[in-house]
Specification:
Strand content: 5-15%
Low-confidence stretches: 1-23
Number of helices: 7
Distance between the termini: 27 Å
Structural class: mainly alpha
Helix content: 25-40%
Order of helices and strands: HHHEEHHHH
Radius of gyration: 18 Å
Length: about 190
């Protein structure tokens, strides 16, 4: 006999035409999947631009002490940056990574994450609650969050950050699968 959660997963899979992850509502399994997701979201390649105070960070193994991005870079009204007058993120961040060691990284459309998507120095439980909240995740369902992580070129940059930078763990596909599995397991949060 199927549990109600398993029936919902089965029905959702049939309605969407896609095969649902094999995981059914299982908090322990869900928390295992969440740890994989948190390892990516809290990694400097991701967290450095998910900031609350308008200033992206330089942090990670390449920087012993986290610091504000140089050149007085700020979010700007649309996230594409205005620190010094007229300076946008794309002034230095082009459509691809610089080939120079620690040169400006790049991908088409370089910009900061929206202000409501803050997780710089947030706890795992705080990030987890935020990812599930459409008011703080870009108005997305968990399936849409997973697809965003897998398909967005700027997000994908975290796994190919250019010379001299540590990549986020795993891959976009692995993180997509972890989000789907976490969601299917009931999307539990640590401490919840």
């Amino acid at each position: 006999m199927l549990t109600s959660a398993a029936m919902l997963v089965t029905l959702a899979a049939g309605a969407s035409g896609q095969e649902a992850p094999a995981t059914a509502a299982d908090p322990a399994r869900g928390l295992e999947e969440w740890e994989k997701i948190h390892a990516v979201f809290s990694h400097p390649r991701c967290a450095n631009c998910h900031v609350e105070d308008e200033h992206p960070r330089w942090s990670g193994p390449e920087f012993p002490v986290a610091q504000h991005h140089g050149f007085n870079v700020g979010r700007g009204a649309d996230g594409s940056g205005l620190g010094n007058a007229g300076q946008r993120c794309t002034t230095c961040h082009f459509d691809s990574n610089s080939s120079a060691l620690h040169g400006p990284p790049g991908v088409e459309g370089w910009h900061l994450a929206p202000a409501e998507m803050v997780w710089w120095q947030k706890s795992s439980a705080e990030i987890c609650a935020q990812i599930k909240d459409p008011e703080r995740n870009g108005g997305r369902t968990l399936e849409e969050v997973a697809t965003h992580v897998r398909d967005d070129k700027l997000v994908a940059w975290g796994w190919a950050p250019g010379p001299g930078r540590e990549a986020a763990p795993g891959s976009a596909q692995e993180t997509y699968e972890a989000i789907r599995n976490w969601s299917a397991a009931g999307a539990p949060c640590p401490g919840g």
